[in-house]
Structures are given as structure tokens and as C-alpha cells.
Amino acid sequence: MNFQLTEEQRILQESARRLAEDKFAPKAFTWEEKDEYPWENAKVLAENGFTGITIAEEDGGQGGTLFDAVLVLEQISQVCPHTGDVVQATNFGAIRELSLHGSKELKSRFLPPLLRGEGIITVGMSEPNAGSAATDLRTRARLEGDEVVVNGSKIFNSNASHAICYVVWVRFGEDVGSSGAVLVERNAPGFSLGKVERHMSGEPHCMLYFDDCRVPKGNILVAEDGFRKLMPVFNVERTGNATRSLALGQAAFDRAVKHAQERIQFDRPLCEFQGIQWKFADMKIKLDAARLLLYRAVVNAVDGKPSALEISVAKAFCNQAGFDVANEAMQILGGYGYSREFPIEYLVRRTRGWMIAGGTLEMMKNRIAEGIFKRRFSQRPPRPKK
């Protein structure tokens, strides 16, 4: 068992870090205040081969591994979290659903602008009455000739206002086995966006509305048994989520280390106080353990798809560790950590969101229990016996 990166992986990691520090650091932590999406950085990422890392070469991607994408996402997110949004959108999640399940025609239309950094694709999954209980989806799709007609709504769609298309999870019938996914374009008739609002993290999100929304039949990505076919790809999305938590926790840690060396109180640096040293020791333990769990899940992934058990363990631990470390860093920096003039408070807000997005900590623990006992546990109350 080798815990060292290969020469190629180390070069990739260093290249991503160098690009981030040279090109993205000057405007890092300014995008929220400007209320802008970092499109200029998206173009730079594309020019340097950091979009579509895991997308097949025949589809215009880099043909790399999931581990390659994780290494890049981790480094860029540490320097500029908003540019990390672009890396995640162009390597994990919805773009993978399109690349794995889309027809050749769909991929030829939508992948090129996505991989050039000219647009993003998001997933419409959560609904007002279907969050963790994803099998309660009410958005319906029916076939009418050569078209698919979609009705329903989706909620908490981060950065949807910037997207050019959406992977929408639907039901083609009443039973769970009829679940599937359809690609909906931004200008599709019957589709509209709700009011753009803000998460605690500052990310824009909005509702997606489908009122007899019509798309070509060829836009169907998965026609049936969607949860079984789509959840392995959603585990890739969770990989990106876990990586972001780890990266932001590391960014907060690094800033706290610098502060503890430079901040003088009672005539000596903070780092000379044993109580502060113990805080840093605990933070380091959490970050190292999180990274090992994440890397294990990614290295063991089959065909680029981590196992549900290992990525659930990694996501749960990375989410908690990232937030704990960022929160402790805020405490160490005191008023400077709490001030909006410095990045730490943003890192705390952002890491808190990853504990909910992509599957809550509680749902991850449910998945872990299922892996332990090798059986599914329904969270619904038992039906009364007849």
C-alpha cells in the first residue's frame, strides 16, 4: 500500500496549485461581493485542460481518472473556492450524467461549450417535498410522440441561473422503478426559473419550474430504473462535495497557522501557547484522516465510480472535518476570523453548506449502516398489518 502520489500525479497537483496562485488568487474571495460567476477563470481552466478531466477523449475530455480530478479540485478550491465551483461543475455531477448516459447527438451539442468554460450544467433533483426522501419525487414526464412533456418543480438549484442546461430527475410513471432523467435546455418551452435567492454561503440558487415543458425524446438520459443507474454517478458528485469540504478546511487551517505564528499576545506568538498547539494538533488529525478516507474511496473506485459505502464514509467525515477545522480557525483568529473583511468567515459559511448538499450527514450515516449490515433500511414507518 503506497501512500505517495506518483510523479505524474504530483506534477498535476503542482500545476493546478501554480495556476490557481498565479491566475485566480488575486480575485479570490471577491466573487460573492461582486455577485458574479468567474467565467474568465472558467476559460483559463479550459485552456489548461482542467475541465472534463474524467470525460472520455472521444467526447472532447481529457480522459483522466477521478483521482486526477480530485487532485485538481482540491488545489484550486483551496486558493479560490468560487473557481472550485467551476472545476466541480465541469468534472463532477451533472456533466458526468450527460457524458455517461447522453446520446452522441446530445453530447456533441452540449459538451463542447461546457468544456470550453462557456456554460455549466446543473442537476435538478431536490423538490419542495422530496429532499433526503429522493424516492418521493413528484416531477413527472410523459411521452407524446417525439417529445417528452415534463411537469413539476425543483428547489435549491445552486448556480442554476448560470446554467445552459439541466439534468432533471423525473418519474415516467407512479412506481419508483419508473424514475429517470431528462436533459432540459435553458430555452425549452414551458421551462422557467424562479427568483434567484442566496444560500448562507452566498451561492445563488433558484427554483426550476416545468409547466408542460417540452423537450425532444432524444433528451432522455435514463428512461427507467433511474435510481439504480444514476446513483453511482451521483456518488461522483459526492466525491466533489467531500473534496470541497477538505479543501476549504485546509485553506482555513493554513491561514490559522500563519496567524498563530505572526499574532503576538502576552509578548509571544499564539503558537507558543499549549492550548493553541492542541487545537492545531486536532485540526491536523481531522484533515489528514479526511484526506485518507477520500483518497481511499477514489482510488478504489470502479470505472470512476466510488462505492456507496466508501464515499459515504468519506463525505460524512470530510464534511464534518472541514467545518470543524474552519470553525476552529475562526476561533483562533478571534475578531479577524469573524470579520467579513477576511476569508475565514466565508470558509465557515461555505463548509457548513456541504454538510447538507449532496446528501446530509444523517443520510450518509444511513448509507454506512446499510453497508455494514448489507441490507437496506427503509426510513418510512412500517405499514399496518392487515
Could you characterize the architecture of this molecule?
The structure is a single chain. With 386 residues, this protein is of the alpha+beta class. The protein has 3 domains: 7-118, Butyryl-Coa Dehydrogenase, subunit A, domain 1, CATH 1.10.540; 121-224, Butyryl-CoA Dehydrogenase, subunit A, domain 2, CATH 2.40.110.10; 228-373, Butyryl-CoA Dehydrogenase, subunit A, domain 3. Helices cover 49% and strands 16% of the residues. A hairpin with a 2-residue loop joins strand 2 (140-144) and strand 3 (147-158). Helix 8 (226-262) runs antiparallel to helix 12 (344-354) and helix 10 (308-333) packs antiparallel against helix 13 (361-373). It is globular and about 80 Å long. The model has no long low-confidence stretch (mean pLDDT 94).
